[in-house]
Structure formats: C-alpha cells, structure tokens
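Lecture notes, part 5. Sequence design as translation. It can be helpful to think of inverse folding as translation between two languages: the language of shapes and the language of residues. The source text, in structure tokens, appears below.
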C-alpha cells in the first residue's frame, strides 16, 4: 500500500489561493460509472492535471492533492480505477484493493482516462495544457498513458512508477518506453526497495535514445511514498518535487 488514511500531500511553497473541490461520478465509453474528484481554482492559471492514484484508488490523499494543485491555479481531477469491479464505494483502509488491482486492464483504464479528460476540459480551462500525475501504480499508468498520442497531453509526471508492473498481461512501462511520445518528469526514491535505481536509469536511457525530453530525478535516501506531509525527514525532497512539477507544467503549458 502506498499511502494510508493518515497520509496527506505536502503543501507547495509560495503563495496559494482558494479552491473548491467536489466528488463527481463519471461515465466511461462502455457505460461504466466511476468515482472522481474535481478541484477548481478560484483564479485558474496555466495547465491542468489528471491524477492517477496508487493501488487503493481514489482516497483522501488524492482528493487533497487535487485541492493543492487547484490552490496554485491548476485545475485537477483525480480518478478511481475500480468502477467495473468494485462499483462506487469508499476507498478507505477497509477496502480490499488487490483483487481489483489484478483486474485492471489498460484498454478500459484508457476509456476512464478519456472520460476524466472530457470532464476536465469541459469544466476547467478548455485551452489549458493537460498532464497526468501518477503515484506508484498510477506512476506506471502515467508512463503507459504517455504512449497514447490521442490524449493530447503536453507531458507526463510519474512518482515512483512501478516500471516492471504489467496490467492485464500486457507490456510493462519499461518495455513500452520506446513508444512514449510526450516529455516525461520522473520522480523516484533512491531507497525505494521495490524500484531499483538500475530500472530507473534504464528508463532514462531509453527515453534519451528515442529523443524524448525527460527529467528523471532520484532523491538519495528517500523511500517509496516519500511525498507525504508526515515524512519530515524527506521534507526537502517533497518541496523539490513540488517545484519540479510546477516548473515542468509551466514549461510545457
């Protein structure tokens, strides 16, 4: 599990405005209803994000992360993965997520992404550049999304992406790296026990070989899920991760 119920996203440095967030239910192309959370800034700036959560799906950490983005002027929608298998229900710590994780397939996930993008673009700044931001499983899915030109992203952001995680028996994010078409910002912990730095460097090398603009950062000594307000030992890594994300979004918006 990436984040428990007590985890909260760090607060970005600098000036913040106000934001409003709401639970919404979206409809995928195959008729599936699934949960999402939309956060709208009082004064929109450039860029908007679609947030891919960790293995637990849409829980409180990601709703608050959407609000943190909106407070700095970036509209955000966080989506749930499990509408087809778990319906619309709570994703608190009592949710047994793994049977549902094992049923996630890329083709239906991409349908949900498109539904999320449609809602975001209809209810936020339709002209804004859009970026997926994924964590753990969501980081892997962010890289998988980077192979799909039809989404019209300007770049993708992946936190501690499971580079060798496959969905529905398909290829892993590392195996798909030569098909990525958008700039990539990758943020990893140097002490992450599940993601060897050698895998991260292989991803970096593949992107460079293809000529994809990339920035891959490994925070020395930081573990998986270091981006957490409670993790005071990694507060500087979290602050820098915010700076990197906002700079990346500004650069491509």
């Amino acid at each position: 599990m990436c984040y428990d119920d007590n985890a909260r996203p760090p607060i970005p440095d600098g000036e913040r405005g106000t934001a409003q967030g709401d639970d919404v239910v979206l409809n995928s192309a195959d008729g599936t209803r699934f949960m999402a959370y939309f956060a709208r800034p009082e004064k929109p700036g450039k860029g908007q994000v679609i947030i891919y959560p960790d293995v637990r799906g849409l829980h409180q950490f990601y709703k608050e992360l959407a609000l943190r983005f909106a407070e700095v002027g970036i509209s955000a929608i966080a989506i749930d993965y499990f509408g087809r298998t778990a319906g619309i229900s709570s994703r608190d710590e009592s949710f047994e997520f793994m049977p549902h994780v094992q049923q996630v397939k890329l083709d239906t996930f991409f349908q949900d992404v498109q539904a999320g993008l449609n809602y975001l673009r209809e209810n936020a700044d339709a002209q804004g550049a859009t970026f997926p931001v994924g964590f753990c499983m969501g980081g892997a899915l962010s890289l998988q999304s980077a192979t799909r030109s039809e989404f019209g992203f300007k770049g993708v952001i992946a936190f501690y992406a499971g580079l060798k995680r496959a969905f529905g028996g398909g290829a892993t994010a590392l195996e798909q790296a030569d098909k990525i078409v958008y700039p990539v910002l990758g943020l990893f912990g140097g002490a992450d026990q599940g993601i060897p730095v050698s895998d991260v460097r292989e991803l970096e090398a593949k992107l460079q070989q293809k000529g994809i603009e990339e920035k891959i950062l490994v925070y020395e000594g930081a573990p998986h899920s270091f981006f957490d307000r409670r993790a005071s030992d990694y507060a500087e890594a979290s602050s820098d991760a915010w700076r990197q994300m906002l700079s990346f979004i500004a650069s491509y918006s």
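The translated text above is only one of many valid answers, since several sequences can fold into similar shapes. The mean pLDDT is 96.
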